[in-house]
Amino acid sequence: MPEKNSPTLRSQTSVPKRATARNRILWACFVLAATLVCYVGALTFDFVYDDREQIVENFRIQSWQYVPSYFSQHVWSHISPKDPSNFYRPAFLLWLRINHALFGLHPGWWHLTTILLHLLVTLLVFLLADRMGLNEWCAAVAALIFGIHPVHLEAVAWISGATEPLLAIGFIASFLAYLKWRSQPSQAWPWIVASLMLFAVGLLTKETAIILPVFIMVWEIVYPSSQGTPAKFSLRRSASRVLRPAIPFILIATFYLVVRKTVLGEISHVFTPLPLKTLLLTASSLLWFYLKHLCWPFGQSAFYDQPYVSTATVTGFLAPAAMLVLVLALLTRIAHHSRPVTFAGLWLLLPILPVLNLRVFAEGDIAHDRYLYLPSVGFAVLLALLLEQIDMGLGRWFGQPPARLLAVAGVALTLAVGTVAQSLFWSNDLLLAYRGYRVAPSNAYVANYLALTLAQRGLHDEATKLYQKSIARRPGFWEPHYNLGLLNYRLGQLDAAERYLAEAIRINPYDPREYLCLGFVKLQAGQAAEAENNMRRAIEIQPQGSAPYMALGVVLESQGDLEGALQQFRIAAVNDPGRTSVRREIEAIEGKLRQRETAGPKAIPLPPSNAP
Fold first, then answer.
1. If exposure means fewest CB atoms within 10 Å of the residue's CB, which of 10, 105, 443, 523 is most exposed?
2. Structural domain for 394, as ranges
3. In this model, does residue 289 exceed pLDDT 70?
């Protein structure tokens, strides 16, 4: 067992007298203020990327009547409830609903609440580092590194990335409550109940929280309590001591998995069936990719060209594996003398392991910075401990060696500049898409995203070329087919629109938008019956919301069936009461029906007086 007092980690050998509560508050305020300064520019940012579909166009977060469905459907059910999904996150949907109820669709307020989440996580990291045994200076440095690290841009500057800080709040707060219960047995019940409830919130925010029982067992190994350590070693007693505290959390995790399987149909769906060899070989390059982004967080993007590795090449497997082994050996050697290093190293590694199951991701979409949000807590603690070792004497500045202060200031300034400069790419869709295309020119997802952004700005030829490039890179990707169909429909090219939409439906028959668009193509072509069939098919797929019913109402109205159209618009109004356009359509049709009733039966014209 590593010893807490270590000759290789001076921060653990000469822990100064604990600062007063006032000093602790001052440290926290400084760290939070620095973090806020780095992200305050995001308050002017727009909704970008998935924010459009997940927030702006999501009827389920615009009315309280849909809250129960958050617990019985997946995140993307507002678009295609029958489409297989691995995203069961009711707490995240509830967070979106609360924000919409408070702020409507004003993105500045949404960005503010996302930044506040990150500030809360940063504070929790400070408290966690303190509980790990770091002195308050070192704990503050760890929290500062976490708070201003550019690798968190995707989770903080992007509103839909709020899943990560929400997860971290539930996860870290639950763990801290567990430690409080462990250290104060006389006040056990309030803390253990709080810990279990926060764990449940974390699970309902993002599935990664399920690894918390493992962290509890790791803590019991690395930081065994004196009361729980047997005088004489016994494997059975040691295993019981480690496992027993985690049992309540394991039971909650088991119940969560049962509910998850009931809702989603599977605990996790396989979207990309990869052989085990490819999984293992790709894991090496992916772990090295993430480690590089933590150590040198520049060139950030929402998209990356991270390929699958199917053969043990030098660049694809052998070199990354060798570097990872070297880093692991170094950490293992240091961790032998330090409990904080041991626990921080495991905190860095364990949350990344679930995202190495690449079969659950869409093809080619395997690397994102947001997956590093929780693991970066361990990295921040390790870097803070490393900086703590810089001590060249030469007096003291603010109670610290000048060299150490300069090193911390240099690291903090570098990270802060990286965060502020690179956050600008998240300010609007065009900048984000161009940035992604520059960083990952071979990524089919960013080509489709940039094409969609250009099409919305009227650059149709450029958009068409990018859509076709996206299809060429990944023929089985349905979205560029759908987007090309929609673009051609808007340009009046109905034959091309029908061709692309038919292909999109063949690849993915679960998205109602494809049928709605094809229905309007048929309506424009004068094929009202086929248009109606497509609209009804869209309703079968998505019986909630308003768009399918409004589309069917338009088709029925075009056929003269005003009563049928009125019925569809009324259903749309019930499903989406906040949509004012539905109410206008209802009033227009009711006006037409009143005119029809007033006019009565059509009169038969008399023959002219000079008729024979």
1. 105
2. 10-230+237-270+372-416
3. yes
